[in-house]
Amino acid sequence: MRRVIEDLIERRKNRQDELKTSLNGLAEALEKRSFLKKNRRKIREGFACFQDALEAYVSAQDKEWDAYANNHATTVFKSLQWKIEKLEAEYSNLKTLLIHFAQLENKLDRLLETLDGKAAPETAAELYSIKEQLSPIQYADFEKRFRGSSEEISGRLEKYLSLFSGRQEILDIGCGRGEFLALLKSNGQQSLGLDLSDSMLEEARAKGLNCLKTDALHFLKSRPGASLDGIFSSQVIEHFQPDYLRRVISECFRVLRPQGVLLLETINPLSVFALSRIYFLDPTHRNPLHPEYMRYLLENSGFSAVEIIYSAEPEGEKLEEIGPSDPLARPINSNVDRLNQLLFSPCEYAVKGVRP
After folding, report:
1. Which tens digit of pLDDT belongs to each residue from 245-285?
2. 187 pLDDT above the threshold of 80
3. 305 Rama sector, left if φ>0, alpha if ψ -120 to 50, beta otherwise
4. CA-based angle 104:109:114, to the nearest 5?
5. What are the sequence ranges of the domains in the chain?
6. pLDDT digit string (tens) for 32-72?
7. Measuring CA to CA, which residue among 239, 298, 290, 312 is closest to residue 263?
8. How many other CB atoms are there within 10 angstroms of residue 243's CB atom?
């Protein structure tokens, strides 16, 4: 490529010299007034020569710049190709590692079944501990792949910050990688997160966030009454059994101070799109939770000012209406609206309650 560019530079210089020569010749001819009358043909030929030289020069310069651009693009693409190949190799290694984790977990299951009641208590406890550390690693990978990056989650949760304004001691049940904890911290608010995933808690702690590995109901029962200003949970309660969820909400009411806020976000089962694309994607989900059922649970537990807060509707998914000029536009568009409401309602909602 370098030799090609050098050759093009030489050609462009030659064309440039030809253009200068042509211009000089025209200048000399125009300086002699008598020459204008007697040699009009020569002047026309001179202008034609000048035009040809100018076009040749511009063409040579364009080819030179094209060569530079192609050379730069080739260099960039080679660099990107190397990085892509490296990322593909790293992803392949990570995928292999995750498969090995799954196989190891299966082997541990079989080993624990074989040793049930036969192994020393400390040995069995250690094996169970190892198994608990393996399963969350796979779920953390699932979360990253399908729910989104920490930056994306933070962007979605930021809208809830204002609902905890002026409150200091806030609990995040199922804090995961700590996106909401980080938002609270940046807002100057005190917070504590709970989760059962070691790998997610490691990510949260690496950000300097305060979090514990413990069961939500067990932690709430250990807290004194009226000791928190707010409780938050995002995309967690759909993992709970119905009785466990009811008991968690009851304990949340007990540990909140007067005017303390409880906010629980979950997937909206009133949206067919959310059910098919989000809810059923995760096999650990137990029960879709109707927003009116969640309103009932909070009100029945003593919360007041209970409200349902919906997220934005999915963009680019709705059925299109037909133009108003069509005689059937009104009945068809009315049915389209009803279908859109059923199929593409907001994907998430949050139920909010306040302790009187």
Report:
1. 999 999 999 999 999 999 999 999 999 988 888 888 877 78
2. yes
3. left
4. 125
5. 2-82, 150-354
6. 544 445 555 666 666 566 666 666 656 666 665 666 556 65
7. 298
8. 8
Q: How much is the pTM?
A: 0.62
Rounded Cα gap, residues 347 and 148, in angstroms: 15
CB 345 within 8 A of CB 271: yes
Return all residues near 9 (Cβ < 8 A) that are at least 6 apart: 64
CA distance 71 to 50: 32
Phi, psi of 37, rounded to the nearest 5 degrees: -75, -40
What CATH homologous superfamily does 150-354 map to? Vaccinia Virus protein VP39 (3.40.50.150)
Tokens of 72: 């730069």
State residue 45's pLDDT score. 64
SS3 of the chain: the string is: CHHHHHHHHHHHHHHHHHHHHHHHHHHHHHHCHHHHHHCHHHHHHHHHHHHHHHHHHHHHHHHHHHHHHHHHHHHHHHHHHHHHHHHHHHHHHHHHHHHHHHHHHHHHHHHHHHCCCCCCHHHHHHHHHHHHHHHHHHHHHHHHHHCCCHHHHHHHHHHHHHHHCCCCCEEEECCCCCHHHHHHHHCCCCEEEEECCHHHHHHHHHCCCCEEECCHHHHHHHCCCCCEEEEEEECCHHHCCHHHHHHHHHHHHHHEEEEEEEEEEEECCCCHHHHHHCHHHCCCCCCCCCHHHHHHHHHHCCCEEEEEEECCCCCCCCCCCCCCCCCCHHHHHHHHHHHHHHHCCCCEEEEEEECC
Name the band, by pLDDT with cuts 50, 70 and 90, for residue 313.
confident
Q: What rounded mean pLDDT belongs to the chain?
A: 79
